[in-house]
Write a structure and sequence with these properties.
This protein is α/β, with parallel strands linked by helices and 400 residues long. The chain has two domains: 135 residues, no CATH class; 190 residues, Spore Coat Polysaccharide Biosynthesis Protein SpsA, Chain A. Helices cover 56% and strands 12% of the residues. It contains 16 helices and eight strands. An eight-stranded mixed β-sheet has the order 3-2-1-4-7-6-8-5, sandwiched between helices. Helix 10 packs antiparallel against helix 11 and helix 10 packs across helix 15. The longest helix is centred in the last third of the chain and has 33 residues. It starts with a helix and ends with a helix.
């Protein structure tokens, strides 16, 4: 019984720590205020779009950027046509972007493409104050560049993450619950971490940098979650990422299981690999410097994917109820903390009614994720970037 108590207490301590952290950042998100200088002159901006075989999406993405409410002489759009064997490059040129083509098939991936661009084509972005990076299947809000400029004009802001949202939450339960995950991870946690003085983190889509940072470093993060890797590297170098939720980008999420599996496996496998690599480094940094930003980044990496957290808490409730009821109140506190994070987080994010309704599909979502986690934990580790098939491509395949 002693051994069982020790095991249960170890699990409880971990779950209480990560759940308490989620509750803390959720409460802090309520008091969040974006960094901005609305009256500042518009920054000159280079918008960079890495694209691999995106002929069906790239023209629309470029068009939304060229239509934004921003002085046309203060920004330019650049597309990296990375190892493409379709019509991405001509489609981007015809839409009005400046296109550079990369053909290095043995070094595929978004991080590799960005590193190549900033180290070999630095002259293209050097004249600009700010570089913004967005994905090739993205719709930019008309105020996107205006909001990026307002934040980057604020003293002390050198790196910014914008709002990365889901455009099709009502498609089915997968897209609705992906919307919920984005709202909690990309918005609520970003707001809370920023408000508490930590780094809101880079999310891959809608990242903005002072140009000098990228010209000095290139893009040294080449893992399958290059955005999270770069966030951690920059934090260790003394840079924090700020957040502006009013600079809005949205994109479609996969509705079909196969495509959603590919995307989720890359995100979550990459996060596990990154945690293994950087948790000891961040723990050492916090022990030496005693700075909240290092503890914040450490706790953020230690938080498992929400679905895995819910499964672990449900299992713990069952085990404590059946074997050691004395620990049941602590297990219930963990579950209650996660419920607060989800409910308050979706309320803060103003989630549409259909997303709330699809919370009833969480059991199906968890069943879908179980084999995914089994594959991540016990299968072959994913080391290379794998592109997610877009909805437009699936629809084209279905055409007669």
């Amino acid at each position: 019984m002693l051994a069982l108590d020790i095991c249960l207490l170890a699990v409880l301590a971990y779950l209480l720590a990560v759940t308490g952290y989620l509750v803390l950042v959720t409460l802090a998100a309520v008091a969040y205020r974006k960094p901005a200088e609305p009256g500042a002159p518009p920054q000159s901006m280079a918008v960079v779009i890495p694209a691999h075989n995106e002929e069906l999406q790239i023209a629309g993405t470029v068009a939304t950027l060229l239509d934004v409410r921003y002085p046309q002489d203060r920004f330019a759009v650049f597309v990296i046509a990375d190892n493409c064997d379709d019509e991405t490059a001509p489609a981007a040129r015809n839409a009005g972007a400046t296109v550079v083509e990369r053909h290095v098939p043995d070094k595929r991936g978004k991080g590799q493409a960005l590193d190549w661009f900033f180290t070999t084509h630095d002259g293209l972005v050097r004249p600009f104050d700010v570089v913004a990076i967005i994905d090739a299947d993205t719709h930019a809000d008309s105020r996107f560049l205006e909001e990026v400029s307002a934040s980057m004009s604020r003293a002390g802001v050198s790196i910014l993450q914008t709002f990365d949202g889901v455009s099709n939450p009502g498609r089915n339960w997968r897209t609705a619950l992906t919307y919920a995950g984005f709202a909690l991870m990309n918005h609520v946690r970003a707001c809370g971490r920023d408000r508490l003085g930590g780094s809101s983190g880079l999310k891959g889509n809608g990242m903005a940098f002072r140009t000098g940072i990228l010209l000095e470093r290139g893009w040294p993060a080449h893992s399958i979650v290059e955005d999270m890797e770069l966030s951690t590297r920059l934090l260790l170098d003394g840079y924090t990422v700020r957040y502006n939720p009013d600079a809005v980008l949205t994109s479609e999420m996969p509705a079909a299981r196969r495509e959603a599996d590919t995307q989720r496996r890359r995100w979550e496998s990459g996060r596990f690999q990154l945690s293994k690599r950087f948790v000891p480094v961040l723990l050492r940094a916090f022990a030496i410097h005693r700075k909240w930003r290092f503890l914040d980044a450490l706790l953020d990496l230690l938080v498992p994917p929400l679905s895995l957290l819910v499964m672990a808490q449900a299992l713990l409730l069952v085990l404590t109820f059946a074997l050691r009821p004395v620990w049941l109140p602590l297990a219930a506190c963990c579950a209650a903390g996660t419920a607060v994070h989800v409910i308050a987080g979706l309320a803060i994010s103003r989630a549409p009614a259909r997303v709330w309704l699809y919370l009833l599909a969480v059991p199906a979502f968890l069943l879908w994720k179980i084999p995914l986690y089994v594959g991540i934990l016990f299968g072959r580790k994913q080391r290379t970037w794998q592109r997610t098939v877009r909805q437009a491509e699936l629809e084209r395949k279905d055409e007669p």
